[in-house]
Amino acid sequence: MVEEYVSRLTTLMKKKYEKMVEIDTITKDIEQAMKRNDKVSTDMFMKMRLEVMTAVDGIDGEIYEILHGGDEKQYHYLRSLINVKTQKQAVDTEFEDEKILMLVSLRVRNVLKSIIEKDKVMNKRLLGKESFYAKNDI
């Protein structure tokens, strides 16, 4: 049963990775449109990004259901695969399906970091001292 959950999580995390890459690409497009002061394109890209983010929320909901579909031990085990901290941890596992899930999870996290950094720059550029990031020094 756990193998089935790992397989389903891997499929979902791959979908999430694809969507996160799409968000990252759209974020770059937003940056370029903002540099050109192209409000129409900026608004269009923002709407596109929101649609993809909504799709990611749906994927996260499915992941949540899988994680909470079993007992507490299973939850912690599956969660540890998704929250792997280093590539070394993933490579050192003996089971190939777990390794794939961990590596995809790391990719998702890395793309998310890239998106957050771009968002910080755009937010500070747009709002200056009123920026969430400037106020909270994140």
Describe the protein's topology.
Elements: H1 2-35, H2 39-67, H3 72-82, H4 87-91, H5 96-127, H6 132-136
Helix pairs in contact: 1-2, 1-5
Which descriptors apply to this entry?
single chain; 138 residues; elongated; 0% strand; 6 helices; mainly alpha
Q: What does the model show?
A:
- The chain is an all-alpha fold and 138 residues long.
- It has one domain.
- The chain contains six helices and no strands.
- α1 (2-35) packs antiparallel against α2 (39-67) and α1 runs parallel beside α5 (96-127).
- The longest helix has 34 residues, at 2-35.
- The chain is elongated.
Would you kindly provide a brief summary of this structure?
By secondary structure, the protein is mostly helical.
The chain-level structural class is mainly alpha
Helix content: over 70%
Alpha plus pi helix count: 6
Mass-distribution shape: elongated
Contiguous low-pLDDT stretches (5 residues minimum) are: none
Radius of gyration: 18 Å
Listing every helix as H and every strand as E from the N terminus to the C terminus, the arrangement reads: HHHHHH
Mean pLDDT: 92
Number of domains: 1
Strand content is under 5%
Reported for the largest beta sheet, the result is:
none
Gap between N and C termini, in Å?
A: 41 Å
Q: What is the number of strand segments?
A: 0
